[in-house]
Protein backbone atom coordinates (compact mmCIF):
# COMPACT_ATOMS: atom_id res chain seq x y z
CA UNK A 1 0.00 0.00 0.00
CA UNK A 2 1.40 3.41 -0.86
CA UNK A 3 0.74 6.70 0.91
CA UNK A 4 -1.58 7.52 -1.95
CA UNK A 5 -3.84 4.75 -0.64
CA UNK A 6 -3.60 5.68 3.06
CA UNK A 7 -3.82 9.22 4.42
CA UNK A 8 -0.99 9.84 6.86
CA UNK A 9 -3.30 11.80 9.16
CA UNK A 10 -5.99 9.12 9.43
CA UNK A 11 -5.38 6.51 12.13
CA UNK A 12 -7.15 4.43 14.75
CA UNK A 13 -7.41 6.11 18.15
CA UNK A 14 -8.70 3.09 20.03
CA UNK A 15 -7.08 2.28 23.37
CA UNK A 16 -4.60 5.16 23.43
CA UNK A 17 -2.49 5.58 26.58
CA UNK A 18 -2.56 8.51 28.97
CA UNK A 19 0.45 10.53 27.87
CA UNK A 20 -0.02 13.53 30.18
CA UNK A 21 3.15 12.57 32.07
CA UNK A 22 5.15 11.32 29.10
CA UNK A 23 8.06 13.34 27.75
CA UNK A 24 8.65 13.48 24.01
CA UNK A 25 11.66 14.84 22.15
CA UNK A 26 11.16 16.11 18.62
CA UNK A 27 14.32 16.29 16.53
CA UNK A 28 13.94 18.37 13.36
CA UNK A 29 16.25 18.62 10.35
CA UNK A 30 16.88 22.12 8.99
CA UNK A 31 17.28 20.97 5.38
CA UNK A 32 13.99 21.65 3.52
CA UNK A 33 12.77 23.57 6.57
CA UNK A 34 9.72 24.82 4.70
CA UNK A 35 8.54 21.21 4.85
CA UNK A 36 10.14 19.99 8.09
CA UNK A 37 8.47 22.82 10.01
CA UNK A 38 5.11 21.56 8.76
CA UNK A 39 6.02 18.06 9.91
CA UNK A 40 6.99 19.47 13.31
CA UNK A 41 3.73 21.42 13.63
CA UNK A 42 1.73 18.35 12.72
CA UNK A 43 3.58 16.19 15.22
CA UNK A 44 3.39 18.80 17.99
CA UNK A 45 -0.34 19.44 17.52
CA UNK A 46 -1.11 15.73 17.38
CA UNK A 47 0.73 15.09 20.64
CA UNK A 48 -1.17 17.94 22.31
CA UNK A 49 -4.49 16.85 20.84
CA UNK A 50 -4.12 13.38 22.37
CA UNK A 51 -3.09 14.49 25.82
CA UNK A 52 0.58 15.44 25.90
CA UNK A 53 1.64 18.26 28.21
CA UNK A 54 3.30 21.19 26.36
CA UNK A 55 5.92 21.54 29.08
CA UNK A 56 6.94 17.93 28.50
CA UNK A 57 7.71 18.39 24.81
CA UNK A 58 11.29 19.27 23.92
CA UNK A 59 12.81 20.10 20.55
CA UNK A 60 16.24 19.83 19.01
CA UNK A 61 17.35 20.97 15.55
CA UNK A 62 19.98 19.28 13.38
CA UNK A 63 21.54 20.54 10.12
CA UNK A 64 20.27 17.65 8.00
CA UNK A 65 18.53 14.31 8.17
CA UNK A 66 21.84 12.46 8.31
CA UNK A 67 22.33 13.97 11.79
CA UNK A 68 18.92 12.82 13.04
CA UNK A 69 20.23 9.44 14.23
CA UNK A 70 22.87 10.69 16.63
CA UNK A 71 20.72 13.52 17.97
CA UNK A 72 17.86 11.09 18.55
CA UNK A 73 20.31 8.82 20.33
CA UNK A 74 21.41 11.66 22.60
CA UNK A 75 17.82 12.45 23.57
CA UNK A 76 16.98 8.76 24.02
CA UNK A 77 19.88 8.39 26.46
CA UNK A 78 18.13 10.84 28.81
CA UNK A 79 16.19 9.04 31.56
CA UNK A 80 13.40 11.62 31.41
CA UNK A 81 12.62 11.10 27.71
CA UNK A 82 9.99 8.48 26.89
CA UNK A 83 10.11 8.68 23.10
CA UNK A 84 11.85 10.56 20.30
CA UNK A 85 10.34 11.69 17.02
CA UNK A 86 12.84 12.31 14.22
CA UNK A 87 11.59 14.58 11.43
CA UNK A 88 13.28 15.23 8.10
CA UNK A 89 12.82 15.50 4.36
CA UNK A 90 15.38 13.96 2.00
CA UNK A 91 14.59 14.90 -1.59
CA UNK A 92 16.16 12.93 -4.44
CA UNK A 93 18.79 14.93 -6.27
CA UNK A 94 21.00 14.26 -9.28
CA UNK A 95 23.22 11.76 -7.47
CA UNK A 96 22.80 8.83 -5.10
CA UNK A 97 23.41 11.03 -2.05
CA UNK A 98 19.76 10.78 -0.96
CA UNK A 99 19.95 6.97 -0.99
CA UNK A 100 22.95 7.00 1.32
CA UNK A 101 21.27 9.43 3.70
CA UNK A 102 17.99 7.57 3.74
CA UNK A 103 19.52 4.19 4.43
CA UNK A 104 21.87 5.61 7.06
CA UNK A 105 19.07 7.40 8.90
CA UNK A 106 16.69 4.47 8.78
CA UNK A 107 19.33 2.10 10.14
CA UNK A 108 20.71 4.66 12.58
CA UNK A 109 17.33 5.40 14.10
CA UNK A 110 16.54 1.70 14.37
CA UNK A 111 19.86 1.03 16.10
CA UNK A 112 19.44 3.95 18.50
CA UNK A 113 15.89 2.93 19.37
CA UNK A 114 16.89 -0.62 20.25
CA UNK A 115 20.09 0.43 22.02
CA UNK A 116 18.21 2.86 24.25
CA UNK A 117 15.13 0.65 24.69
CA UNK A 118 12.89 3.54 23.67
CA UNK A 119 10.71 4.37 20.65
CA UNK A 120 12.49 6.57 18.13
CA UNK A 121 10.08 7.27 15.31
CA UNK A 122 11.19 7.56 11.68
CA UNK A 123 9.32 10.66 10.61
CA UNK A 124 11.43 11.20 7.51
CA UNK A 125 9.98 11.85 4.07
CA UNK A 126 12.05 10.45 1.19
CA UNK A 127 10.30 11.95 -1.85
CA UNK A 128 11.44 12.11 -5.42
CA UNK A 129 10.19 15.68 -5.76
CA UNK A 130 9.27 18.69 -3.64
CA UNK A 131 5.67 18.22 -4.78
CA UNK A 132 5.60 14.76 -3.24
CA UNK A 133 6.98 16.26 -0.03
CA UNK A 134 4.32 18.97 0.05
CA UNK A 135 1.61 16.37 -0.48
CA UNK A 136 2.84 14.50 2.62
CA UNK A 137 3.33 17.49 4.91
CA UNK A 138 -0.25 18.64 5.30
CA UNK A 139 -1.27 18.14 1.68
CA UNK A 140 -3.50 15.66 -0.09
CA UNK A 141 -1.84 12.70 1.59
CA UNK A 142 -1.94 14.10 5.11
CA UNK A 143 0.99 14.95 7.35
CA UNK A 144 3.86 12.58 8.12
CA UNK A 145 4.33 14.48 11.36
CA UNK A 146 0.85 13.49 12.50
CA UNK A 147 1.62 9.86 11.75
CA UNK A 148 4.97 10.02 13.55
CA UNK A 149 3.40 11.52 16.68
CA UNK A 150 0.60 8.96 16.79
CA UNK A 151 3.16 6.20 16.32
CA UNK A 152 5.12 7.56 19.29
CA UNK A 153 1.97 7.67 21.43
CA UNK A 154 1.06 4.10 20.59
CA UNK A 155 4.60 2.83 21.14
CA UNK A 156 4.94 4.35 24.61
CA UNK A 157 1.61 2.76 25.45
CA UNK A 158 2.73 -0.60 24.14
CA UNK A 159 6.00 -0.41 26.06
CA UNK A 160 4.13 0.30 29.31
CA UNK A 161 1.91 -2.74 28.69
CA UNK A 162 4.65 -5.13 27.60
CA UNK A 163 7.19 -4.17 30.25
CA UNK A 164 4.74 -3.44 33.08
N1 LIG B 1 20.10 16.82 0.57
C1 LIG B 1 19.52 16.73 1.81
C2 LIG B 1 20.26 16.69 2.99
N2 LIG B 1 21.62 16.73 2.94
C3 LIG B 1 22.46 17.00 4.11
C4 LIG B 1 22.71 15.75 4.97
O1 LIG B 1 21.54 15.36 5.68
C5 LIG B 1 23.81 16.03 5.99
O2 LIG B 1 23.42 17.13 6.82
C6 LIG B 1 25.13 16.36 5.32
O3 LIG B 1 25.45 15.30 4.43
C7 LIG B 1 26.26 16.52 6.33
O4 LIG B 1 26.38 15.39 7.14
N3 LIG B 1 19.66 16.57 4.19
C8 LIG B 1 18.28 16.52 4.28
O5 LIG B 1 17.73 16.43 5.38
N4 LIG B 1 17.54 16.56 3.13
C9 LIG B 1 18.11 16.66 1.90
O6 LIG B 1 17.37 16.70 0.86
C1 LIG C 1 19.69 14.32 -0.67
C2 LIG C 1 20.72 15.29 -1.03
O1 LIG C 1 21.74 15.50 -0.36
C3 LIG C 1 20.55 15.92 -2.38
O2 LIG C 1 19.75 17.08 -2.25
C4 LIG C 1 21.87 16.27 -2.98
O3 LIG C 1 21.59 16.59 -4.30
P1 LIG C 1 22.53 15.99 -5.46
O4 LIG C 1 22.36 14.48 -5.40
O5 LIG C 1 21.99 16.59 -6.74
O6 LIG C 1 23.94 16.43 -5.14
UniProtKB/TrEMBL annotation:
A Pfam family assignment: DMRL_synthase
Enzyme Commission numbers on file: 2.5.1.78
Protein name: 6,7-dimethyl-8-ribityllumazine synthase
Organism field: Dyadobacter jejuensis
GO CC list: cytosol; riboflavin synthase complex
CDD domains attached to this UniProt entry: Lumazine_synthase-I (cd09209)
InterPro entries documented for this protein: LS (IPR034964), LS/RS (IPR002180), LS/RS_sf (IPR036467)
Top-level enzyme category: transferase
Amino acid sequence: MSTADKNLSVFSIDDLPNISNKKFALVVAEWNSEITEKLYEGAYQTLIAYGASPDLLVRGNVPGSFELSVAAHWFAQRADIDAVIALGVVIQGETKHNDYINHAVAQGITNASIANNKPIIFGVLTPNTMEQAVDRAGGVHGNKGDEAAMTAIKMVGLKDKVLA
